[in-house]
Write a structure and sequence with these properties.
alpha/beta, Rossmann fold, 2 domains, 8 helices, about 40% helix
């Protein structure tokens, strides 16, 4: 009888030890999760994350960053990421301590054009975005995409961005060909058709600015103005604010747009904190919501 009681006692001790061993990691995970959420909630960082267009690298925005920092007293540090085809990420630059609005550029080893590549690049950007959120714990960000960079952002928002703990506050796309080379909305590309179909996945609290450059009011030398304007069929009526802006004059050619002084001013006015007032800003056209098309 005594042996049976002793055996039962040992079984009880072992069972309690096993239960404790299982509960301890769970408790630690729960505690870590709460700490992570609290850190993200309290974060003051609001980075501006740039995506370049096809054939461009993570260095695409160097001149733009230099101009913005010259205007604003070198306030923004610069971190660059390249996502490789094997899903590995390489980094250069850094985010300086106490910089609450750093600039982050995400480029791709495969930076080729085409809808299938844009879909791949959106997935690669989601990997970079996840890595950035884990490391820097920000709870909001602003987004800027030049050319295909705006298309990558659109695919990312529709297919991969599903976060309750992180807000994309503003998006500015610059010369983004939402309907590729088509000059009429009556001929929708497969990409535009897909974007319109999934537009309800785009966050409704977003303020979106679509910038077009024109040399002759028809195109910017590469992208038709009507293709840029096709973005309204994706964003207008879905987001909080949708604004179309056209820049003309010097450096309105497609490849010059990121360093165009009017666009530098627009970024300062609409995207960056503590905006500076500049006389080179064109007058925006704030579009009113329309029915889905």
């Amino acid at each position: 009888m005594a042996k049976l009681r002793k055996k039962s006692l040992w079984l009880l001790v072992i069972s309690l030890a096993l239960i404790g061993g299982l509960m301890w990691p769970a408790a630690q995970w729960s505690r870590q999760s709460v700490m992570t959420l609290a850190k993200r909630h309290d974060s003051r960082m609001s980075p501006v994350i740039f995506i370049p267009g096809s054939s461009a690298t993570q260095n695409r925005f160097d001149e733009l960053v230099a101009k913005l920092n010259a205007n604003r007293g070198n306030r923004h540090s610069l971190l660059k990421l390249t996502v490789h085809e094997n899903n590995q990420i390489s980094y250069s630059g850094e985010i300086k301590p106490r910089d609450n609005e750093p600039f982050i550029v995400v480029g791709f080893e495969n930076n080729k054009d085409g809808y299938s590549n844009i879909q791949k690049q959106a997935k690669w950007f989601s990997l970079a975005f996840t890595a950035l959120t884990k490391k820097y714990q920000f709870n909001n960000f602003k987004a800027v995409g030049h050319s295909n960079g705006g298309l990558i952002y659109t695919a990312f928002l529709e297919d991969y961005f599903n976060r309750d703990d992180i807000t994309v506050k503003k998006l500015m796309t610059i010369g983004s060909p939402y309907n590729f080379s088509e000059t009429s909305i009556t001929h929708k590309s497969q990409m535009l058709t897909d974007f319109i179909k999934k537009r309800k996945n785009i966050p409704t609290n977003l303020s979106m600015y679509s910038i077009a450059g024109t040399e002759n009011f028809e195109n910017d030398g590469i992208v038709p103005a009507r293709s840029v304007e096709a973005g309204k069929y994706i964003y207008q009526g879905q987001v909080k604010h949708y604004t179309e802006i056209t820049v003309t004059g010097d450096q309105a050619q497609h490849s010059d747009l990121p360093q165009n002084q009017q666009i530098v001013a627009l970024l300062e006015q609409y995207i960056l904190s503590k905006k500076n007032t500049r006389n080179t800003q064109p007058t925006p056209k704030d579009s009113t919501p329309s029915e889905d098309q």
